[in-house]
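quick one, two chains, predict together pls
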Amino acid sequence: MSEGEKDDSSLIESQENVEQNDSSFDNNTDSKIEIKKSQSVHYQQKIDELNELLEKEKQKSLRLLADYQNLGKQTIDRINARGDKIILDFLTVYEDFIRAKNAYKKDGGNVDSLNSIIKNMESILDHYEVKPIEAEGKKLDPKLHEVVQEIEDNNHEEGTIVKEIAKGYIIRGKVFKYSKVCVSKKLIKK
Amino acid sequence: MAERIIGIDLGTSNSAAAIIQGGKPTIIPSAEGQTAHGKAFPSVVAFPKDGSAMLVGTPAVNQAVTNPENTITKAKRKMGTNHVYKIQGKEYKPQQISAFILQKIKKDSEAFTGDKITKAVITVPAYFNNEQRQATKDAGTIAGLEVYELSTSLPQPLLLLVLTKQRWT
């Protein structure tokens, strides 16, 4: 074999080797890409799952927070309702004291001690934002006053409160007890 | 947001409404607060003599002594009939009067929940005939409520149980 022929054959061999290497390289990269692809799909699935889980947990925490806030509101309402009931009972005693004071005063008795007790009671009512509804001399407001009787009276404009039978109260800006009143009615001449 | 449906007990003497809140039925208090009728309010409508705004519920009862001719009570008994209430030169059908009560319930419910209320389940007595049921539905429509269902108490046992139990406590 001449030198030239030897060179040719080695060149062909090396070319074959390169081709073989190329193909094996291609095969390797393809498989690697495949692996990467499957891995990315796997990771994407994982991310989706985690996102879904996160969303679920978010919703859950939102609902729990809402439940907690509702419970807070309900508790305040319940406490207020209980408090209101106690105040209502307290008001009957307070009104009894006022009636007793008026009776003693009428008989000429000393009402100083009763006055101080009533004053203390009023400060307690003030503390709990209980305010009496003004009635006598005012125009009837059905949102504050409950009419129990009409009195014929030409001295007042029709629908004016001429007598208060039971005091009404407002608590925290809402009517707690309507005041029971008598209103004027024009005298009908026969 | 899921649509909210309220349950209404449209009664002859008193009315009340409830809503499911946090999975539990809750009575919607009337704007006047808790009265002698509990969280329910009287089914009374009044048109004041001085021409001021119409009154529904406790304020209407409060002025009934001075204005009996313009105060309507127990309109439910006339539902489905041709009865007409003549008030201050205007004529009102019983379903219109019931609609005023339902409008108040709608307003109070919206204030209580903070959501717009458009659907309701209204209770009707089991003995109500078709005309009476239709009149109740019409009242709901006039009040701006889509009557999802007329209940004769069986389909909403929980709601009604609460409605009847909490009304007087």
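Chain A touches chain B through 21 residues (CB under 8 Å).
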